[in-house]
Amino acid sequence: MAGDLTAVIDDLRAESAALTDMVNSAGAHALATATPAAGWSVGDTIGHLWFFDQRSIDALTDPERFVAGLSEVLADPDGYLAAALAEGRAAGDHVLDTFESTRSRMIAAIRETDPQVKVPWYGPPMGLTSFATARLMETWAHGQDVADALGVVRAPSNRLRHICHLGVRTRGFSYAIRGRTAPDVDVFVSLTGPEGDSWEWGEPAAADRVEGPALDFCLLVTQRRHLADLSLRVAGEAATEWLSIAQAFAGTDTLTDPARIGLSATQLPPAR
Predict the structure, then answer these.
(1) Would you state the pLDDT for residue 74?
(2) pLDDT class for 166, splitting at 50, 70, 90?
(3) What is the pTM of this model?
(4) Which residue has better confidence, 217 or 269?
(5) Half-sphere exposure of 147 (CA within 13 A, CB side)
(6) 185: DSSP letter
(7) How far apart are alpha carbons 37 and 257 in whole angstroms?
(8) How crowded is residue 26: how many other Cβ atoms within 10 Å of its Cβ?
(9) Which residues of the chain does CATH 3.30.1050.10 include?
């Protein structure tokens, strides 16, 4: 567990640096550039991550205070997300620097937290490794919005493996959030990593299968691309149904409502 957590933390730090480097390299106009998310700029995207990094630090360092504030979210979730957006916009041109410093504090807080602790969040409490993985996933997914906005093609890295694992683990959750139950059918997932490695989950003999590039699977489960636009091979009714609703976050479809990914880190069921 400790080794896995260390790897996730290191990759979270690397993914965070990749995002800030991408924005810095794009020049002064970058923050104002519109993203594919209607009404959101690159600066809004960074501000959104910053807002939830602050909430993450609260959850890690002062869980009682964090839990006490959950009533505000439950009473008016749309208003809460609007306030998050406004707070990021208030940071103006300093939002990237503010994000970097807060992200560093959040990563330090994760490192200093007892790995056995369950971290409160907007769903049931999570294990620390799952919490860190969710922050990595959110950074990568929103980073894709930024890359699309700036016309940047990101080189995929082995950090995608964490997101793939999360995507597989959230199969049951993708059904539950829609008031449905996942079929009791094993789906074998075999993905090719950026360096040609094979990453596998499930029973290799299963008739239902998902195969293809790890990058494409990540784009699908974070709902940054439609299945029809990806090179994933899907066999079987259960696998086909799953990929039609797959999401590694809570809330609505981010292709139409990207802010919801900020509330993604719910407790996840084990992968089949």
Answers:
(1) 84
(2) very high
(3) 0.91
(4) 217
(5) 16
(6) -
(7) 7
(8) 18
(9) 161-245
Q: What is the pLDDT of residues 194-209, one digit of tens each?
A: 999 999 999 999 999 9
Q: How confident is the model at residue 254 (pLDDT cuts 50, 70, 90)?
A: very low
The residues, any chain, with a CB within 8 Å of residue 158's CB and separated by 6 or more, are 193, 194, 195, 197
Mean pLDDT of the chain: 91
Q: For residue 95, what pLDDT band results from cuts at 50, 70 and 90?
A: very high
Is the CATH number 3.30.460.80 carried by domain 2-156? Answer: no
Contact (Cβ atoms closer than 8 angstroms) between residue 245 and residue 174: yes
DSSP string, 59-70: HHH-HHHHHHTH
- Per the listing, tokens 């939830």 go with 52
Contact assessment for residue 233 and residue 212, using Cβ atoms and an 8 Å cutoff: yes
Domain boundaries 161-245, corresponding CATH code: 3.30.1050.10
Q: Please enumerate in sequence order all residues whose Cβ is within 8 A of that of 141, keeping only pairs 6 or more positions apart, or say none.
A: 222, 224, 249, 254, 261
Which letter, b or e, does each residue of 31-63 get, where b requires 16 or more Cβ atoms within 10 Å of its Cβ?
A: bebebebeebbbbbbbbbbbbbbebbbbbbeeb
C-alpha triplet 215, 221, 36: angle, nearest 5°: 85
Q: Do residues 221 and 140 make contact, with C-beta atoms less than 8 angstroms apart?
A: no
Residue whose tokens read 């080189």 = 155
